[in-house]
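Narrative of activities, Objective 1.

The group set out to show that a structural description can be obtained from nothing but a protein's sequence at a throughput compatible with the screening campaign. Below is one input-output pair from the validation batch, recorded exactly as produced.
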Amino acid sequence: MVAAWVGFFDALIAAALVLAGIVGAHFRFAAPFLGFQLFLFGLLFGVLGLILGLIGLLRTRHPQFRTAHGRAVVACYLGAILTALLVYLATGAKGYPAINDITTDVDNPPEFVRAGSLPQNQGRNLTYDKATYADRQQQGYGALRPLQLAMDPDQAFKQVSTAASDMHGWKITYEDPKTRTIEGVATTRLFHFQDDFVIQVRPASGGSEVEMRSKSRDGKGDVGANYKRITAFFRTLTASAPK
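Output recorded for this entry:
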């Protein structure tokens, strides 16, 4: 009977933490990383709620404890939902390297010019750390190459600038036509994590090549977010480029 009641309250607290984390981060009542931590703690509490709920179901089979049976059922349902979500997220994150700085050129990556002066980046070292990231990127994602465009660099830069300005969740913070460089901040949909990115158009044989780098502000891993951002932008750019 005790397990049923404890599991019931544990499951309610777990659901509240999950909702608080999502709502708090999404509507900017809490920092993104804090909201994500609350979300994860809620999922872990959900696992405990499921375990206690199952114990409660076994205990409340006896007639003298039937009054707590409903509490055990609620604990099991909520706990199972949150546990399934945790397993789903853990499975989806499996295989991604624990890095949060991705670039199309590990030997000569685009470097940030404006990002370091933003208030959120004060005190952060935004220089690319090849020793830390290059090998892990290669192992996790294989070769990530710059995008080749069959147009002169200035024309390509205009195309890149237009495409970057239209990307959902992106805010352009710096643009220099002379060096053909664009910087910006990408905000994720749910928790509103903010990642810095820099794009640079360079001359290449047959036209131009687009180099890009994307770096997270929080955590040590990004569950593939920066890699997906680069590849998604390259697909958008390829689709919008003149044939």
